[in-house]
Amino acid sequence: MIPPINDAEIDWAETVLGKGISFDAEARVFIRTMASAQVVACPGSGKTTALAAKLLILSRHLPLPGNRGFCVLTHTNVAIDEIKRGLSSIGNAILPYPNFCGTFQSFVGHFLGYPGYAEEFGHRPSCVDSEVASRELQHRHSGALENARFYLDKRGMSIEGLRFNKRLQVVKIGEDTPFVGEDTPTYAAVSGLKKDVLRDGYLFYEDSYVFAQRHLDRHPGVPELFRNRFPFVFVDEMQDTDERQLEILTRLFGEVATTQLVGDPNQAIYRRTDVGTGCSWRPPAGALTLPKSRRFDQPIADVATRLASVSPITVRGNGEGIRLTPHLIVFRDDMIQEVLPTFARIIVQLNLHRLPLRPSYKAVGWVAKEHETGKHTVPSYWPAFSAAQGRRRAQYTTLRGNLSICAGPLGVDFPRQFGRAVVASMAGFLRAGGALSPSGRRFTEATVLDHLRETNPSVLRELETVGAEWCLQARAGREVTDAVAAFLVDPLAGAFGIDASLPPARDFLSGDDSEKTPEQVGSANRFLFEGGVIEVSSVHAVKSETHTATLFLETFYYGYDIHRILPYLKGAIPAGNEQARVKESLKVAFVACSRPTHLLCVAIHADTLGYRNGRDRLTEGDLDELRQKWEIVELR
């Protein structure tokens, strides 16, 4: 039995965590709570830090009797790294066996999916990665498959886009019945190919959940083992938990284990995830709340309060910094390309470009693709924008260029970005050295790790070890280029059989193209101005980010999204019974408008043709009401 957590222990955790951490009353209630609970945490509330403090205190009572432990789940390695950093060396006891601290994907795979797969196929999976599994499907051809691909293409489907259900039938994503009759040649060809790839050990992420469910069906006593092993379960970023993950969580732990779910359902903007349909978590009315944001002050907090549609919450600002009134940029259709320059002028007028710690600015919209009938989406504001470009890293030709991310803003996703930069450096070095794959192709970021996994797993393990250390050093501001270069020369060059002393390889290691402009490195999604760079992106792409200033761009999705939520910009509070499109628009707006630390801007049409060519028009009465909450900037 673990004794109740008291304020003295929370004070101790604040000291250990350092960096001026101070938990408010609501955070202390959550940390002290030892029963099952659901916690609604506003953006920037420090919920992960509060969870780390709770775990830090609980780790003093380890090991638990009967070789039992804590289970800590979230959705990304970035979030896990944040928890681990918060625990510090004193809390390391929370990480090893019998405890578990990792992603949902790794938990389901390790404990259920991989054992379930091995039970059916006699060996463990070779690789669980949807991109790798897709490539395996693409590389295998036959005459029957050509006919099947033709059939699927005509219907907007692809073999790579089909999945298995729990009965190992081939289905469309999100459905449970075969995509075509099981007695047809098309089904036989597609099912045969997918099962061959599956049997060879290449799994999509969803497949782990399929075999987890099959494993639980065959062994109904497994949940009892989990409840004995993990009497305490903590889930962070609960709003990103989809239906299939929630089903497994409930099936394993039910109401027996003490389960604490922490997140913000107001930010649940994914209708689908990698493994299933979107969030179905609905905290009860009596859920605990963490309503104070450490990210922004009260003006932005007030906007967030008016957009919280799923779990109403009165957001409190941090009471620090500059209290800037949010700006509403109202534009005519023919002035749409003046919106970004106007945002840039506001940044300069408010001297935000002179802030320390490398300020960052982003302009984001819900819909990133061009609309087929010309309705306004993100590219309407910045014609050079490319949604695909936003998913690619700039291509540098030197090691220093690839690692130049270390000189940019260090956001919460820095470990993931740094990891990509290291892999890009490896691929660039191998290309410079003339290394070719067994099929005679140059290595890419996707294939270099696959090749190491198959031919030199010891080098890959060394990369994982030293890469984590490089990331910590880079985050602390220390130079890591020489260390990465040494790894490229030995052992990577030897593993791929290239001569690192050849001029192209030497030039890659010693050159420096990190000072290229965004245009030179191929990024079309950056607007340059005298105060810096505004990155143009989608709301979904910046969901976990923090910016100095954020511009939320109105885009068309069954109507213009910001006009759809106009009453809430004026001051209305969601009642919880809004229509589905309104609620969806409120959630996207909530995510976009809660990114900035200093300045929030929103761009809205003054008068345009909206859904089914109805008029979306701001009247003088609308503008008068909006002026009570916003600084209005009209582009005429």
Helix % is 40-55%
Class by SSE composition: alpha/beta
Morphology: globular
- Major sheet details: 7 strands, mixed
Count the DSSP helices: 25
Beginning-to-end CA distance, first to last residue: 68 Å
Strand content bin: 5-15%
Q: Catalogue the unreliable spans.
A: 517-522
The spatial strand order of the largest sheet comes to 13-14-12-15-16-11-19
Mean pLDDT over all positions = 88
Please compute the radius of gyration using only Cα atoms: 26 Å
Number of strands: 19
Task: Briefly characterize the structure.
The protein has 636 residues and is α/β, with parallel strands linked by helices. It contains 25 helices and 19 strands.
Describe this structure in words.
- With 636 residues, the chain is an alpha/beta fold.
- It contains 25 helices and 19 strands.
- The longest helix has 19 residues, at 414-432.
- The protein is globular, with a radius of gyration of 26 Å.
- The model is unreliable at 517-522 (pLDDT under 50).
Keywords, separated by commas or semicolons:
alpha/beta, 25 helices, 636 residues
Write the layout of secondary structure elements.
Blueprint: H1 7-17, H2 25-32, E1 37-41, H3 47-58, E2 70-74, H4 77-87, E3 100-103, H5 104-121, E4 127-128, H6 130-139, H7 143-154, E5 162-164, E6 170-172, H8 185-199, E7 202-203, H9 205-218, H10 222-229, E8 232-235, H11 243-253, E9 258-263, E10 288-290, H12 298-307, E11 327-331, H13 339-349, E12 361-365, H14 378-381, H15 387-390, H16 399-402, H17 414-432, H18 445-455, H19 457-475, H20 481-496, H21 503-510, E13 526-529, E14 532-538, E15 547-553, H22 561-564, H23 566-570, H24 580-593, E16 596-605, E17 607-609, E18 615-617, H25 620-626, E19 631-635
Parallel strand pairs: 1-9, 1-10, 2-3, 2-8, 4-7, 8-9, 11-16, 11-19, 12-14, 12-15, 15-16
Antiparallel strand pairs: 5-6, 13-14, 17-18
Helix pairs in contact: 1-3, 2-3, 3-4, 5-9, 7-8, 12-24, 17-19, 17-20, 17-21, 18-19, 19-20
